[in-house]
Specification:
alpha/beta; 2 domains; seven-stranded mixed sheet; Metallo-B-lactamas; 3'-tRNA processing endoribonuclease activity; RibonucZ/Hydroxyglut_hydro; zinc ion binding; EC 3.1.26.11
Length: 304
Amino acid sequence: MSSRELVVLGTSSAVPTRHRNHNGYLLRWDGQGFLFDPGEGTQRQMVHAGLSAHDVHWVCVTHFHGDHCLGIPGIVQRIARDRVTHPVRAVFPASGEKYWRRLRHAAAFADTRIISEHPISGDLAGVGPIIARRLSHPVESYGYRVQEPAGRRMVPEKLAAHGIRGPEVGELQRTGSVRGVTLEECSVPKPGQSMAFVMDTRLCDTVFELASGVDLLVIESTFLSSEQALAKEYGHLTAFEAGLVAADAGVRRLVLTHFSERYGFGDEPAFVAEVRRHYDGEVVLARDLMTIPVPRRQVHNPAK
């Protein structure tokens, strides 16, 4: 099983349907669980997906429209009830803090102290491994990006050419040089893996910036282009625009979600067709309870 994968808990937009729950996405990333936009019913969807409250380390809310946050009370109370002991960090727009507090304390329960709050503001913010950028929506909304730092990968042929072997390899990685040979002489750049999460927004520069070069882009495509005017009025993207972003940003795997209730599974080919007008990479039309791996980084390994 991949240590970096997205578990899809819900894929509808404002109104859940018989086949699509409200939003909800849990990103597994090296033992950390990032729960994005838990909409109504997320706690039950987690049960169906084989997840528990102990899998949640972060709760990241893009904005406080109901389909992106009404699951918070159940998640918080489940974390408390199941006596989760590790820290859980909640990230959300500072302008919606009053809504967070109402949801956080929506009912009587035995509370927990392990949840810390990290309200964000401004055009650019960061909390731990998360980068947040302000989007364009009728209420303040943020997109998120999880980014692994860039590193370097050792090249066996280069190590052998310099006579570096055994414990010296580890020393080279730790210190950057061994016997006058530098790390750069024996390795190649290794870009860090990345994932971006873009929900309710009009097309804007920050969408492209969040998506730039990511391995996995999870992006709303609420409407088809026939509803372009409606999408712009309500601050949403079309499938056509999602494809434009993916192509321009060089995305490796594109995941469409947050579908209007007016569309059924039979409309999926139309979403793909709109994306294909710009983007020829891998496209996944998300369905509830899917698991989608983050593509592995492939680094060219020249032997010189």
